[in-house]
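[step 3/7] fold_predict: job queued, chain A
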Amino acid sequence: MIELTLPTMTCGHCVRTVTETVQRVDAQAQLQIDLPTHQVRIESQQPAERFTAALAEEGYAPA
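[step 4/7] structure written:
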């Protein structure tokens, strides 16, 4: 389980972008998002670095 805090994820549009980004890295990934706390949990066989790099490119760098 990969747990990330994305401080710049603040709205529904952000959630959609984060979801699409995670799915581009791994279409089979299971994703849980808690918008009020800016928390994202990803269950995937891919390394965390692939998700953090892709999210950072979209403007959602993990804290």
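[step 5/7] annotate
The CA atoms of residues 21 and 63 lie 17 Å apart.
The mean pLDDT is 97.
exit 0
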